[in-house]
Design goal:
The protein is mostly beta strands and 499 residues long. It has 1 helix and 26 strands. Strands 15, 17, 18, 20, 21, 24 and 26 form a 7-stranded antiparallel beta sheet that branches.
Length: 499
């Protein structure tokens, strides 16, 4: 129309009206491929539809600056909030670059916390969902068709703090993870950090470390006051039913610890295991306890007493009460054998109505060289005589041992009790002077045999079942008619020892 809409001045081209919007590719803002709009209102806004390509020219440029006129990277963004709410930012397909997104900031602020990168994802689903929500996801994968060897590393996420100043940094955390329940809802499983390995194909993982803590180093030669490879704070303060600072699951797994271990103490010295009960929360607890299938097998008590098994069936060592002391099924079996002539035994006719006969002691090859007492009488009717022996239960006596707690070997010439026999009476004067603990009468056998007396007989009232108690065993031997004789051999006491 012959109207000039442009001005050229000092090497710059501009519209005659400097308040006009600028559109390319369309006469309306919505249709334009490239536009500067909002100029009349004083709000300079640039927008482009399609691809916006910035390329270097003759070795200069090719960088985009947002919030700066001197960009130093392909995309240099300088703002208090780089990416606003509900904005998507996606950079893909950038080959052969060491850094796709890189930010190098220097801050001098002391008034506020400073975040190099920060974001918040607020989850508000319309209904129940099984979806996963991730604040950040980083994944490093090798191409499935790539057969090259990687001698470097692949790291999904790395956090690092490097203090290069000369002042004091109170706390440095390379990586921190927290979970928090801030309402009346329930978190079924809360993991502040969860790690694991998965060999998901037929490949090989040579060494799998769920968590690997590398050795601390002091390459600069400075002062390293305290070093903890793993430090777990007290987990018993939250009021939960179970509190474990360290829990290793898996009954078939193995746990290995090299070096020294201190329980309740940090002063482990050169000992492999040092336990200090005084640092425990309760003074009456056990220093050490081991169990299998819910049954205690080994205990070191705070008093220093060691129990193998338990107090019902076990072995106890006491630093003040001596030991070992056995109990229950742990008690070993011991025996006391008295062979004729019994030590301290006496011959007596006390309580005998007729005592005409002969008492001898002998040993015979035909009786397997056993020693025995023999009572014989030429009288037609029964005559008797008594061998009496006092026996004191030893200090280690714990209990009688079953149905053969006492055994008396004997032999009679005849199997008829009216011609010869053996009566046995046992008295414990500390429990009764008139009623016998046990009595067995009219015992006969033409071959050497054993009279068995059970623990239940010796433990009934009156009883003989306490260490240090002394009982008198009366062996009343009967004989008649010259050939009818009674012989008595060994007396054996079988008991369970308590030490």
């Amino acid at each position: 129309s012959g109207v000039n809409w442009w001005n050229q001045l000092a090497g710059a081209l501009s519209p005659v009206s400097i308040n006009d919007d600028f559109l390319i590719g369309g006469t309306a803002t919505s249709a334009a491929k490239f536009s500067y709009t909002g100029i009349q209102s004083g709000n300079t806004i640039a927008s482009a539809s399609g691809n916006l390509i910035v390329m270097p020219n003759n070795g200069w440029g090719g960088q985009v600056g947002i919030g700066t006129t001197t960009p130093n990277q392909a995309l240099d963004v300088r703002s208090s909030s780089i990416f606003g709410n509900q904005q998507a930012f996606d950079i893909t397909g950038v080959p052969n670059r060491s850094k796709i997104i890189y930010s190098n900031e220097v801050t001098t602020t002391t008034a506020n916390d400073f975040f190099l990168a920060a974001g918040s994802l607020e989850v508000n689903p319309a209904g129940a969902t099984s979806r996963s929500y991730l604040g950040a996801l980083y994944n490093v994968v090798s191409t499935s068709t790539n057969a090259q060897n990687f001698t470097g590393q692949m790291v999904g996420v790395q956090g690092q703090v490097s203090h290069r100043g000369t002042g004091t940094l109170t706390t440095a955390k390379g990586t921190t993870g927290y979970t928090s329940n801030n309402n009346i809802g329930t978190i079924t499983n809360a993991f502040a950090g969860k790690f694991g390995n998965d060999n998901a194909s037929i490949g090989t993982i040579t060494n799998g470390y769920g968590v690997y803590i590398a050795s601390a180093t002091n390459g600069g030669g400075g002062t390293y006051s305290n070093n903890y490879g793993l430090y777990v704070e007290d987990q018993s303060l939250v009021g939960s039913t179970s509190n474990y600072n360290l829990y290793s699951a898996g009954g078939g797994s193995h746990n290995y610890l090299a070096g020294n271990l201190g329980i309740g103490t940090t002063a482990v010295g050169n000992g492999q295991l040092v336990v200090n009960q005084t640092n425990f929360a309760g003074s009456s607890g056990d220093i050490f306890a081991a169990s299998a299938s819910g049954t205690t097998k080994f205990v070191i008590a705070n008093s220093g007493t060691v129990t193998i098994g338990n107090s019902t069936d076990g072995l106890v060592f006491s630093p003040t009460g001596g030991g070992p002391t056995y109990s229950g099924t742990a008690r070993p079996t011991k025996k006391i054998t008295l062979s004729p002539e019994y030590a301290g035994a006496v011959l007596t006719a006390s309580g005998s109505a007729a005592a005409n006969g002969s008492m001898t002691s002998d040993a015979s090859p035909s009786a397997n060289f056993r020693t025995y007492y023999e009572w014989s009488s030429t009288q037609v009717s029964l005559n008797d005589y008594v061998v009496a022996v006092r026996v004191t239960l030893p200090a280690d006596f714990g209990a009688w041992n079953g149905s053969t707690s006492m055994q008396i070997s004997y032999n009679t010439e005849s199997s008829v009790a009216s011609t010869n026999k053996l009566d046995v009476f046992i008295y414990n004067p500390s429990t009764s002077t008139s009623v016998p603990v046990v009595y067995r009468q009219a015992n006969v056998s033409t071959s050497w045999t054993t009279l068995n007396i059970a623990n239940t007989d010796l433990e009934d009232s009156p009883a003989w079942n306490t260490a240090g108690q002394t009982a008198t065993i009366y062996l009343k031997m009967y004989a008649s008619g010259t050939v009818n004789k009674t012989r008595v051999g060994d007396i054996t006491l079988n008991y369970l020892s308590k030490f």
